[in-house]
Amino acid sequence: KDSNVMPDEMILCNIVSACGRTGNTSYNRAIYEFLKENDVRMDTHLLTSLVTMYAGAGCMDMAMEFYMKMSVRSLFISTAMVSRFSKAGRLEEARDVFDQMEKKDLVCWTTMITGYAESDHPREALRVFEEMCRSGIKPDEIAICSVISACANLGALDKAKWIHDYTGL
């Protein structure tokens, strides 16, 4: 900062990644202030690094701010946002991100199912599982474990057996 040399996006990505790995949230604040003060142009790589850093630190509002600035949101980063919001107990925001995704793979569907199942919303986990099956995505063992856990929380043993038989796993 004192040298009046402006780092490029690549250097900023490396700095953001390094700060994210430290887990020190004061670095996160300093980076945010630097970006604002210097009106830094943010490309997809820098935005991805910022989202990852803030989400990893549990600063979901900041992560969402940068996520929303992304013109193209990868399946990976969107699934990570669903996961982090779910882990923070912010299922409505997790579902909003999930619903806005144009393409969803098995990992993304399973992340949303698991988020509901682990947050004591088993009925919603089952609804998402049914949506996934209707969309043509075939569940794997991880998705089945989450959905059977949701069935157990509901006391719906017959539904769990049906899911097990349906999937053949």
Automatic annotation (TrEMBL):
PANTHER family: PENTATRICOPEPTIDE REPEAT-CONTAINING PROTEIN (PTHR47926). GO terms for biological process: RNA modification. It comes from Noccaea caerulescens. GO terms for molecular function: RNA binding. InterPro entries: PPR_At4g14850-like_plant, PPR_rpt, TPR-like_helical_dom_sf. PPR repeats lie at residues 74-104, 105-139. Signal peptide: none annotated. Keywords: Repeat. It comes from the Eukaryota. NCBIfam families: PPR. This is Pentatricopeptide repeat-containing protein.
